[in-house]
Amino acid sequence: MFNRVQRRYRITRISKNGFVLENLLIVMILTVFLIPIMTFALAVAGSTLKFDETIQDETALFQMRKIMMIGDGYECVAGMIHFVYQGESNEFAFMNRHLILKPGTQIFISDIDAADFSIDHGIIYLQYRRGEQSRQIALIST
User: Cα 82–83–86 angle (5° rounding)?
Assistant: First the structure.
């Protein structure tokens, strides 16, 4: 009887070790197949997650247009645009690498090297430069 128990214990132990080895091999094989897929997915995700300043700029320009459409009495002085908005005198100005709305410091466009407003044939233009890229955008018609 003792021999039977010993034999069963050995058989069970041998099959257990084999079961763990089979599971480990399956996991390793699946991992090997998944590594290239994950590498490709992370490379694609990395390129799409880059911060795109032009999207942020377009959002800021949309907000500027909304404010300026409601405003009145536009004057372009020294590259800044002065206007009346909700009964208060306001201006868009370039300060410390930001295009801001005064009074206060509501930042509209960040990290720009230069900004300048101009009025030509009743259209208000904004020209700004960020690094090598320069843009001129028509904001509103007065």
Answer: 145
Residues 34 and 83 reside in one and the same domain:
no
Beta strands, E only, the chain: 72-77, 80-85, 88-95, 98-102, 106-110, 114-120, 123-130, 133-141
Q: Could you tell me the residue range of the domain that residue 2 belongs to?
A: 1-50
Amino acid at 13: R
pLDDT, tens digit (0-9, with 9 covering 90-100), for 55-106: 888 888 899 899 888 888 888 888 888 999 888 899 998 888 888 998 887 8
- Contact, 74 vs 124, CB < 8 A? yes
Q: Cα separation of 90 and 102, whole Å?
A: 6
Whole-structure pTM value: 0.62
CA 105 centroid distance within chain: 22
Name the percent of the chain lying above pLDDT 70.
Answer: 86
| Whether residues 58 and 118 fall in one domain | yes
DSSP string, 44-65: HHHHHTS--HHHHHHHHHHHHH
Is pLDDT larger for residue 97 or for residue 20? 97
